[in-house]
Amino acid sequence: MMTINLNIQTVTAFAAATCANVAVGFDILGFALENVGDYVTLSRRQDHEIIIDTITSNESLPYSTQHNTASAVIKKICQDLNIETGFTLNIRKGIPMSSGMGGSAASAVAALVAFNTFLNTPLSKNELAKYALLGEEVACGQQHPDNIAPCIWGGLTLIVSNNPVEVVQLPIPDVFCVLIHPHLQVATKQARAVLNDAVPLKDHTRQSAHLASFIAALYEKDIALLKNSLSDILIEPQRAQFVPGFYEVKEAALKAGALGVSFSGSGPSIFAFSASKSDAEIIRTAMQAQLENKHIHSDSWISRIAKDAAYVTELL
Amino acid sequence: MMTINLNIQTVTAFAAATCANVAVGFDILGFALENVGDYVTLSRRQDHEIIIDTITSNESLPYSTQHNTASAVIKKICQDLNIETGFTLNIRKGIPMSSGMGGSAASAVAALVAFNTFLNTPLSKNELAKYALLGEEVACGQQHPDNIAPCIWGGLTLIVSNNPVEVVQLPIPDVFCVLIHPHLQVATKQARAVLNDAVPLKDHTRQSAHLASFIAALYEKDIALLKNSLSDILIEPQRAQFVPGFYEVKEAALKAGALGVSFSGSGPSIFAFSASKSDAEIIRTAMQAQLENKHIHSDSWISRIAKDAAYVTELL
């Protein structure tokens, strides 16, 4: 039987924004960013309630504990583990909604990591992933682990099994990630709905070659091979419609020295890899300028791929 | 201008049998075997003719120099390089026809490697591949490099570009290959014709995960991961029809300890990987027994993956 450490009153955990797909690995690859993510504070209550106290965000998020991913997963895990302690949640969203940056995964994972700290016998990452998946179902109707995996394990992850979630941690390439969030909202459901149910066999083969050479490039630390492989002929063309001027943004990034450019998850956010911080700055400027040409404002981040993506930041 | 070394009269080269696809990499992966392959002897003539003298084989192969892959590629390369020296070819086929073991590639590559030895400035592997591709066109109507690549480069190859052929040499896993050739003929054309033009997106994703984890397993030298990844949900089910009892053969191999089993190229040959030589012997026996149950005789080989696949064996 699982028990709560009664010496702990409040835990705050951070969980990072994540980029799923990574051009070559639709629904199987993802990586975590540094310094951008969500914070969830869990405070032990005297009653049995799970309650959201505050959500700090630029957007309006559901306070209903059934519809908020953070509270929904805490409710479910308390039920399953027969834990009768109640919790108050305070959520600070650093990740914009429907941005393709794994915001729903991050809130759920931050809540779970905070919760796990209360347990006298903490759960494994695989067990946490099971609950985080339920959060994804609350958020978008499907249990996709492509943001969950990099958010829980950190680094660059390959999902080899969806449910239960099984992950291979790939070598982290020595690159910088430029992440641009155009101020457009694309719901994951909508971004999935546009995809063809089938892939031409010859495109499957070509895309498989990109994926395999990307994995080889990671292990070989071969930046030229990584650059050659980072191309999505399958999914990106179907989703380019969601960002006016997407191809101009991509072209500008590549011209400015990007190693590869594609959507972060289902978009509209766009990531680019670069070999250096200074390249990253130039690439960011070029990408944002193209968006401004279309009168689209954007936020941006420059980050290494984060080795650790979810961790406790405060414990009282 | 290319010139011929007039001190050389006769060169014999060997080129190995190869297994394309390797379950997880349709049209992009392949590996070479040891000790089974074709030999081609090129003898310099006084006239300008390209002539096939003998073909040693259990089967009847075309003596027409336009339709034999070995002579066709020698004709073409002599034309392109403006070499007016004639050659007599003697071909010893160790690879059965239409077996899925890369016989046409091996004959072309052996001829090209022998030819290259005559050149005062030998051609690169990439240049040889270009001509070997023409041999594949002669043999099956299409320029597929999936047997060419492992035959020329050896080891386990990933094709990242078809034409020009570009290859990544992957780590060679520490396994034994059991190769069974059921006495059935499946023409490559026929084996391609049965394939659906499209792949369901969800199957693409699953198969991509298998491919990516296979590549990771090679670098990590992780035999358990290799075993988990070696699965073809796309192509194998469509070609199983060509070998009566295919699934029984596969099941028997896995029960006997195989790490993975699938078609070699487009079949009907079947390869299995095993962790040890003694496992390989047991797996071979089990597979052949299943075929015998269906009254299908077979040949078999047990081999490491060959580091070198094509080389000169005699020079006079």
Summarize the structure.
The structure is a homodimer of 316-residue chains. Chain A is 36% helix and 27% strand. By secondary structure, chain A is α+β, with helices and mostly antiparallel strands.
Structure description:
2 copies of one chain form a homodimer. By secondary structure, chain A is of the alpha+beta class. Chain A is 36% helix and 27% strand. Chain A has 10 helices and 12 strands. The first copy, chain A, has helices at residues 69-80, 103-118, 125-140, 148-153, 188-193, 201-220, 223-229, 236-239, 246-255, 277-293; strands spanning 10-20, 29-44, 50-56, 87-92, 156-162, 165-170, 176-182, 198-200, 260-263, 270-274, 298-304, 310-315. In chain A, strands 1, 2, 3, 4, 5, 6 and 12 form a 7-stranded mixed β-sheet that branches. A 4-stranded antiparallel β-sheet of chain A has the order 9-10-7-11. In chain A, a hairpin with an 8-residue loop joins strand 1 (10-20) and strand 2. In chain A, helix 1 runs parallel beside helix 2, helix 2 (103-118) packs across helix 3 (125-140) and helix 6 packs antiparallel against helix 7 (223-229). The two termini of chain A are 24 Å apart. The model of chain A has no long low-confidence stretch (mean pLDDT 95). Chain A binds chain B through residues 25-29, 158-161, 168, 170, 195-201, 204-205, 207-213, 215-216, 219, 225, 228-229, 234, and chain B through 25-29, 158-161, 168, 170, 195-201, 204-205, 207-209, 211-213, 215-216, 219, 225, 228-229, 234. Strand 8 of chain A pairs antiparallel with strand 8 (198-200) of chain B, so a sheet runs across the interface.
